[in-house]
Amino acid sequence: MRTARVPYDEDPEICPVRAWTAYRTRLIAEHGEQWADPATPAFVGIDRWGRVTGGMVPDSVTRAIKRISARAGVPIAWTGHSLRIGLASVARRSGRDSIAIADQGGWARHSRSMLGYMQREDGWDDNAATGLT
């Protein structure tokens, strides 16, 4: 188990902490107090009859993200790694320390593989040569 600190967002409509709290509150109310234990899986699978099947595995997370994206009309082929790419890329672009990014995303500190997750949009807005002359 890993502990990640997630801050509240100013906008309650997109706040990950409020969304998480609502999700877990409903999970406990509908499927039992055992889901109140912090050691239980963060996300659970639910079968077509609405029964919780246990914790989601990486492949089921990818399938869920693809289904949600398709329903939302997002024209991008998302995967489970898309979430990590988004975190690493936006955090780096916002000037966050690489150790903080590694800790939040579950990478080893100074991880070379983490660098592969950091993407740039077009190379102009985030250009290392800007302002050097």
List keywords for this structure.
single chain; 133 residues; mainly alpha; 2 domains; two-stranded antiparallel ribbon; 5 helices; 5% strand; elongated; DNA_brk_join_enz
Helix content: 40-55%
Distance between the termini: 48 Å
Question: Which class do the helix and strand fractions yield?
Answer: mainly alpha
Overall tally of domains: 2
SSE run? HEEHHHH
The total of beta strands comes to 2
Low-confidence parts, pLDDT < 50 over ≥5 residues? none
Rg result: 18 Å
Give a quick account of the main beta sheet: strands, pairing sense, barrel closure. 2 strands, antiparallel
- For the biggest β-sheet, the strand order reads 1-2
Alpha plus pi helix count? 5
Strand content: 5-15%
- Could you report the average pLDDT, rounded to the nearest whole number? 87
Overall morphology: elongated
Description:
There is one protein chain. With 133 residues, the chain is mostly helical. It folds into two domains: 12-56, no CATH class; 58-121, no CATH class. It has helices at 16-31, 58-72, 80-93, 98-105, 112-117, and strands at 44-46, 52-55. It has a two-stranded antiparallel sheet. Helix 3 (80-93) packs antiparallel against helix 4. The radius of gyration is 18 Å and the shape is elongated.
